[in-house]
What we know:
Blueprint: H1 4-7, H2 14-26, H3 31-46, E1 50-54, H4 58-71, E2 75-80, H5 83-93, E3 97-101, H6 109-119, E4 125-129, H7 134-143, E5 147-150, H8 155-167, H9 170-186
Parallel strand pairs: 1-2, 1-3, 3-4, 4-5
Helix pairs in contact: 2-9, 3-9, 5-6
Amino acid sequence: MKNLWKEFPIEIPEPLDNELEEIASKKSVSKNDLICEILREELERKKHISILIVDDDDGIRALLKEYIRREGIGAIVGEATNGQEAVKMYEKFHPSIVLLDVLMPLYDGVQTLKDILFYDPRAKVIMVSVINDLKCIIDFMKVGACNYIVKPFKKEALIKIIVDTMYSNTYQNALNRLKRRLEENLNK
């Protein structure tokens, strides 16, 4: 069995580590195998990335779709040409990631970001824009954007940002899931 635990170390607080040892011994598996099982489940769950593309430029939307499909990193669940459409589509599809243009008609990207985060405070939104100003980028992050990419962008940069944004909490989520499972097993 491949040792994922050594490849992706997580610091486990001592009380949780003690519980982990106890559950592993009850299941007659090693602590390492139990942790690997949790990590594999989390990574498998994260493979299914759904993406909403929001940009008023047909060419940019087509380019984003092409890059995402070519790399096979996710399924595009919808496209919107303005912020109002984007909010409705987010509410309908609950995508894993939103690629959101900043400058659009009707609603700009910042208002759209605020509305999506009002609906779902855990939404993962990547701002996509020609604006390459550090103050603006910081302002987007303060509002709640998870990441930012400047147009024009290279395929590799886009893919890296999507993957980094999607998996940024994978190991913390795995640890939280592990803790819940340990608590459930202790209560049995």
